# Entry
Amino acid sequence: MLIETETTPNPATLKFLPGRAVMEAGTRDFATPEEAEASPLAEQLFNLGDVTGVFFGSDFISVTAAPGVEWSQLKPDVLGLLLDHFSAAMPLFRPGNAGGISVPSAEESFAENPEDADIVAQIKELIDTRVRPAVANDGGDIIYRGFDQGKVFLKMQGACAGCPSSTATLKNGIEQLLKYYVPEVTEVRAV
# Structure
C-alpha cells in the first residue's frame, strides 16, 4: 500500500492520501486528544506526542504537528500508523454505546432571520459547490455557521484551522466570491 503526502498552505499540516475512502460522508475534526478518543487512529496519532490536530476528509487525513516539530522527524511515524491502520482494515471509529454519549459544548452559532432563508440557501450552495472542494484540496474543510445582517460566519477545520493564509483565503477568496454572487453579503468572518 502506498500513502501519498501533500503539503498544505499551513506549514504545520501535512495531507496524507491513502488511496481509498477515509470518510464515506462528512468530515471529522479532532482538535484535542480527548476528542480523538472516538477514533483509534486519531488517538494513536495524538499519542505520538507531537501532533496537535487530526482531520478526516473524504479521501485524506490531515495531521498538524506541534510548534517546533520538524516533519522530517514526525512523517515516518505518521506514515507507519496510517499504513498499519489501513492495511489491517481497522475501523475508523470505536463503536458507540449509551455510556459514551455526551452533549458537546454548544458551537458558536448565530440566530438567522427567517426572511433571509433564500440568501442563506444561496450562501450554503456556493460554499458546498465552490468553496468546500477547493478547501478540501488543501487538506481542510469549511463549515457554515450563520448569516446575520450581511455577515457570513464560517468555521475553518483541518489544515485551514490556524493556517497563516486562512485570513487571506477568507477575505480575498471566499468573501469576494460570496459578495459577487450574493450582493446581500457584506463580510465573511471566521468563528
User: Anything to note?
Assistant: DSSP finds four helices and eight strands in the chain. Residues 97-106 have pLDDT under 50 and may be disordered. The longest strand covers residues 140-148. Residues 117-137 form the longest helix (21 residues).
